[in-house]
Each structure stands twice: as C-alpha cells, then as structure tokens.
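== Item description ==
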Amino acid sequence: MIIIGINAYHADSSAAIFVDGEMIAAIEEERFTRVKHWAGFPIQSINFCLKEAGVTIEQVNYFAIGRDPRAKFLKKILYLIKNISGSIKVVKDRFQNSRQVKSIGKELEMMSGIPASQFKNKLVMVEHHRSHLASAFFASPFSEAACISIDGSGDFTTTMRAVGNDKALNVIDSVDFPHSIGIFYSAFTQWLGFPHYGDEYKVMGMAPYGEAKYMDKLKDVIELTENGLFKLNLKYFRKGTQGIISYGDNHIPVVANLYSEFMIEQFGQARSKDEPLTQFHKDMAASVQRMTEKVIFHMLNDLHKRTGLTNLCVAGGVAQNSVANGKITRNTPFQKIYIPSAGHDAGISMGAALYTQHIVAGIERQPQILSAYTGSRFSNDEIKKVLIQKNVSFKELSDEELYDRITNQLIDGGVVGWMTGRAEFGPRALGGRSIIADPRRQDAKEILNLKIKRRESFRPFAPSILKEYVDEYFEVNEPVPFMERVFPIKMEKRKEIPAVTHVDGSGRLQTVDASISPRYYALIDTFRKKTGVPILLNTSFNENEPIVNSPEEALACFTRTHMDMLVMENILVERNI
C-alpha cells in the first residue's frame, strides 16, 4: 500500500509518502522553492517522495489531500448570506482556491503525463482539522488519547476536539470560523507591529519581557464558554468576508489586517514595524500569550472531563506555541503529550496520509514516529563534488576528529553550521540542519545575531540536551524530541547556560536521543566530556530564508555570513582568516 499525502494551495505546501504503513519521506515545498511558507502545488516534494520510496506515480494507491471543500458547506453558505456586505473578490478567491483543490487530478496529470481520469478514484479529500488530528494521534505511541487541533482556520473550522482509539478518530465538537484563537493571536501580532504570515512566534518570544497587565481588557475580546470552548467578540476583528489570507500568483500567503478600528479605539494605535518596542507593547504581548494559554487550558480541562483520558495529542498552528505546550501537564490533568514535528500546516500532508491509511484503508497502526529526519540527504562524495566545482578548500575527517575540531571551535567562541543526515520535517532544526554554539557563553546571542541571524534581540535560542540529563537541568522532565515545549530551567543551572536561558528562566528544549540522532548526540556528548555541560545552543541553519536543504544552500549561507566553520557530513570547511 502506497499513500502520498499532499498539502496544496495552502501555506506550508508539502508532501509525505507512506509505504506499507511506514513513513518513508516528508518535506515542505519551501525547501525547494526557497520561499518561506510557499503555498502552491508541491510538485518537487511529491517527486522527492516518489524518488525516496523508489516507486512511480502509477504505483500510488491513494493521494490524500488535506483539504475538503465540501466540509461544512452549508455553514459556509449561511455565513456568506449573513455577511453579504463582504468583498465579492474575496468570495471569488475562496471559490477559486476550492476549485484548485478539486482539480488536483489535473495537476497530477500535468506532472506525470497520465490522464487525470486515472487518478480520480485514487483521490481522498480529508478535512483540514481531521488531517491535523491524524498527524498527531496516528503518529503517537497512544492506543487511546484525547486530541485537539487549533489554528487560524481550515475548511471553515478553527478548533476540533476528538478521541483517538486505535484506528478510529471520533470528533467530539468543533469551533466554526470566524471564532478562532489563531485569528485572535494573529490580530494582536499584527497590532504589535509584526505583519508577516508566521510572525506569531515573535510575540511569544517577546512575552516574557512583559507582565500580563491587560487580561481584564482581553476578557472583552475573547470569552470562555460553558461548553468548554470559546467565542470572539467580533467587533475587534475585520470581517471574514473582507478577506483573511490571500495567495497571489507567486503562491506567497499574505494576511490582511485582522484587527478592526474598534480594536484601535480600545487598545490604542497599532505599532508600525519600525517603531521602537515599549514596555506597553511587551506587556500586551505577555497578556495575549497568557490569555491564549487560559483558553487552551479551559478547552483541555473540559476535554479531560468529557473523556477521562490522560494521554493528549495536539496539532494545528497554535500547537507551535511551545510556551503553552510546556505548561499543559502543570495546568491540566493530562500526563502524557504527543505533538508532531510538523504540528503546523505542513503536517497536513502527513496527517491526510495517516487518516487515509488507517481510517479509509484500515491498515494496522505502526510504531510511533519519533524522528523528524524525513527530508533530503547528501553523501560525502556529493558534497565534495559541490565544493570542488566551486573551488572551495575542505578536509574530510573521521567522526571522532570532526567532533573534536567542532567542539574546540565552539569552546573558543565559534559558530558552526552543521548539516548531517536527512533534513527535518517541520519548522525546527533538530540537529540535521542546525547552527550551533556554546550555551555557556554570555555573549553567544550577540555573536549569533552579529554574525548570522540579525534578528530581534528578544528572540531566544534553544538548548539541545542529551535526554539522560534533562532532570539535572530542567524543572520538568518530559520527552521533547521535536523542540515543541518550553520548560523552566532550574535556578542553579541558569547561570551555567545563559545563552539558552530566556529572560524568564525558561528554555525551549530538544531532548536528543542517541538511537534517533546518533551523530548529533555524539557531538553533544563530546562537548559534555570537555565542559561538563550536555547541551549545545541550537538554531536553524538559515538567514532570513527557509532552512537550508542542500550543500549549495549551506555553503551560500556560510559564505554570506560570518560563521566560523561549516560541517557537512564528514566534510569540514573553515573560514580563511
């Protein structure tokens, strides 16, 4: 059984392939197009998946599409009738987007030369949030779990709660557009002066610098309801029929201003992106983050009450809120949590495939997915060929020599680009495509921002920690394979690792397992033997672009920045002084 999952005509376009139940490959199209959040049809990702699996497109049994334009169709029509004053252009754009999703057979015909009619019975449309839920539950270690998906909006749903049981996924309830935590968070993200699609993480990073002083005012914006859900006060938000997200011919998602004039009246003039950040802005960020957590915990406590379950699976764009994720077991009765590496919309491809695999095809559950390394990979010979063509000097070293050289460079205050094995699926670099530094250095953040990242000073860097040492450094000891949770760092350890300790004493950790990430584990362990610290500072290998995918992109990033060393598999490139 061969299933390809597809997220198309939606932000973070991607593809994933499963063969006889096992995920062979999954990748985002932005890794090929080099355009963040690219939202077209993922031809290159599909071709990559086919190649990795060693199969042809004719052999694929199902193409699982993570959208279903038929979902809640009557509710969509009723919403448009009630809001008839909206933009005709927006309505036409949404119908055009739906037609594109329905015409995926034509896209497959264009890329393969096989008539679309031959794909007709192989296409399975899976509702957006069911795909999210499937990406978490069917990849988890749980035979039974409560499940929640939260994001901006997809197929007219913004939140969905369910129970997963073996091969079944039974939906309990959902929240309809335009009532959305994602829209709530995005609107305030824009109001705080961060206008681009995906900028919400900046608000999360800024929140610890403020105090949640404005919770009372936010209670008028979003209300907790008795059924365990929530609703927005729509006076604060732009009408949905005036447009939320649009995709131009360049397939780049553009988010319209989501806040209304009423929000400006109540909270003040929106900050322009070049305006200095004041304490008021930081306090607002803290308040928005706190209110978001309050809504999430409200829904989860009710979900536990309804199900009695202590296992939880979380997905959707709001699942990327690692600060909220890290507090779930301390603010709800849930004890074990699984969040996939691509909890955001790229994970729709993986989820649609898993939904089709278990619910449509009835295939037995497979072992949990604990590795995000499903993307591109390159051999030493391929890497050397690129460097020789570009006339770049290099050395080829054994693993032990390499780890020794790298850790010495880190201890001396250096910054290293590290590329090994397969690229990660999802927004986090997890030791496959990472930039690494010494977490003990007080000046590491300044060095990184000066040499490479050039990003806002309030945004933290993350610790990759050997999983056996989590209890020694963090107040909470839970497995975090995909860097999807933030935990408090123990008070006595904060001065030891200042470069990865946020202003509130927390860190967004990745627990590194030797059986999943053997080379990255060995590198960190070499650093531990020299310093006594089982942690490296880890940030994504990029500079205002998608994470690097190939040796050419890694070399280009190294060349235009000031990192000290580039390592690709066993190949070492050092900067000429």
